[in-house]
Amino acid sequence: MGLQKCGGCLSCSLILLALWSIVINILLYFPDGKSWYASSNNLNNYVWYFEGICFSGILMLILAALLIILDRDIFHECCQSESCTRTYRRFISVVLALLGIAFSGYSLIISTLSLVQGPYCRISTGWEYAFKDTAGRYLMDQSSWSQCTEPAYVVEWNIILFSILIALNSLQMLICFLKVIAELKRILCGTYPVFVEPALI
């Protein structure tokens, strides 16, 4: 019962993190609170990968919902015994959790690359990536942020939001990893048979 409650809590946590990922990703399209920059394509190119909306957002929501369904006691039997059915449920949960690691890992990579590249902004010579050649060193050099004159406070906006996305994605990966470990423990160390026993004639 304890493992089941723990697994259910992990799955529910994924839903909350996925919703936050969607919200944070949407905010990235409105620097300075304006939609003009998105409509004129004056945003960081990584924003258009929809990592927080699709992968660590919608897909993670679907995955978490399936995990919650699999965690419930009421489930259609897929073979001749209840213990066998539970084994298959655990196996499917492992596969879904591994997919969750892939989804959140992809979002984590994209968010990190975007943070290192820096925002697309207007500087004295026009619109460009002012910090693309700094390899992320601009993050520690606050005095250089004033190069970006438009959108207002775009450097701070990107740093805060992408940092939050990185934190959310890291938590998602951790939860999915713990889910994999928990389900494998229930399969290998529990009372569920790994293989279907043939019926006696």
From TrEMBL:
Any single GO CC term annotated in Swiss-Prot or TrEMBL for this entry: membrane
Coiled-coil stretches: none
Keyword Transmembrane among record annotations: yes
Primary location: membrane
Localization in the cell: Membrane
Keyword Membrane among UniProt keywords: yes
InterPro entries: L6_membrane
Pfam families tied to this protein: L6_membrane
Transmembrane segments: 7-28, 48-70, 91-110, 159-178
This protein's UniProt keywords: Membrane, Transmembrane, Transmembrane helix
Membrane topology: Multi-pass membrane protein
Similarity remark: Belongs to the L6 tetraspanin family.
Protein's name in the database: Transmembrane 4 L6 family member 18
Protein species of origin: Pogona vitticeps
Gene of this entry: TM4SF18
